[in-house]
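Question (not urgent): is this output format expected?
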Amino acid sequence: MNPPLFPKPDEKFEGLLQYLQQSRGFDFTGYKRPSLMRRVIKRMQMVAIESFSDYIDYLEVHPEEFTQLFNTILINVTSFFRDPLAWEFLAKEIVPKILQPKKDDDSVRVWCAGCASGEEAYTTAIVLAEAQGIEAFKKYTKVYATDVDEEALTTARQASYPIKAMEPVPRDFREKYFEQVADRYVFRADLRRSVIFGRNDLIQDAPISRLDLLLCRNALMYFNTEAQSRILSRFHYALNESGFLFMGRAEMLLTHTNLFSPVELKYRVFARVNDLNMRDRLFALPGLVNHDVNNQAPRVLRLQEMALDIAPMPRIVVDANGNMAQMTLRARQTFGLTVKDIGRPLQDLEISYRPVELRSLIDQAYAERRTITVTNVERHSPEGDTQYFDVLVIPLYDNGTALGASISFVDMTRHYKLSQDLQHSKEELETAFEELQSTHEELETTNEELQSTNEELETTNEELQSTNEELETMNEEMQSTNEELQTANEELRQRSDELDTANGFLQSILTSLSTAVVVLNQDLKVLIWNRVAEDLWGLRSDEVTGQGFLNLDIGLPVQQVIRSIRNCLMTDTDHDEVLVDATNRRGKAIKCRVRCMPRIGSRKERQGVILLMEELES
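Got this back:
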């Protein structure tokens, strides 16, 4: 689509800008018209609209279009460490100058104007934390970052950036100041508390004051000359006397050297000019840029006098001779002064020493050529109330000559009481936090104990399970052993039965024989003594079993048989026979034939002797 041709484009376009200001509070009237109109037309082409009036109607029907339009106009182009050489110069040359005069408990205040999505604000925080140390940075430093784009501020507050956006950040800074979460990097939470984001329109809203460093990089280039002059005047007011302004490489301050002097023009670093003459101060006032300053100065001075008189805070002006030169209505009401006191020596007035000694403070301000501040000055009013003031003694110079001093009494009573309440609340909060921390630690301890107990129970359960498995194994082994014992017992019973059968069989054989049978072991102890032997010699089997055969008291002359027994045991004799005279159990003398045979074992060894004794008939 070709760029549209607009009848009277200025009037239509100004109407659109006025609509944006009334409906959304954005004042774009200070922006350069060509670039501003070019961006608006670009957005209109994207929604196929050709006239500014039709686009106003479209915005009324589609409120979500405001976000897209503002993103197109504001062009939030930024990155970490943009222009690295400029940042290196700032870190090595400017930051040490800011920190060197600071006392241990002095604060450091920085403002990043036009911060977009926050990369520049976090870059500033990294540079200051490197110079101060992380703990000192967290305790004493505040980095204020502002923009008019709420969507960009939302992104900045989240402090979360993709990996690609982190490429300009050195690796050691990335590891030290960011935490990686999935595929994004998040700025450290403890340092994030020192970076404060908020909405601020550089043209409409009041600037942040008492700054040591102000960064406004490539933002002024979108404003026209008048708007730039107004913004730079606010920047001059916002900075401390030793403050620095850090701008983008696309911006120059050649037309505003009365407010700022270059420190390093190559990197766009400027210092605040403190000694301004009356013409420069008037030139810095908004609305006088395009008028004759010499003609407007008396009216402006009168306007300043009237504004001073109705100022909401007590303020007095003392000339270089120490005489009262001017006072506000609130000063007269608060300290019991009158218009007649103007021109009187300050030392003759009660205000010179109550509530604080002013003359020494004025002398100090002249000597040091800076604002002297005394905080929390206590004063008891005639009504019996206690008030607290911050007293600011500001020396007034013109072309190096001291004209006098302005003394302002900032009523901090409400702030002091709120501070006391806040301090009390903080103490209560700290106490509650400590209690919560203690409870949390106890809970963690309890959780650890429970975890330990749970682990012990799991271990005990494993041991019990192992023991149970061992018992099951032992039970199975005992069952197996029991079965083996049962089998062995059964075999033993069978063998016992077999042995009984064999014994019975042997006994029946021995009983059936008509010959007395005696079986001896190698020690000649009786093993078997059959029934015929009992009838022959008169001794029962149970009486002689296990007894030594040679020790038996029977009618057999065993000494006559011993030789045959030994022959059977000691020699290879198969048998030996002897006939002896003996006496049977009835006392009758008989002839007895004793036959001796060796008892041979399974291995052919001689294990004893078998004696066959037979009574011969006479």
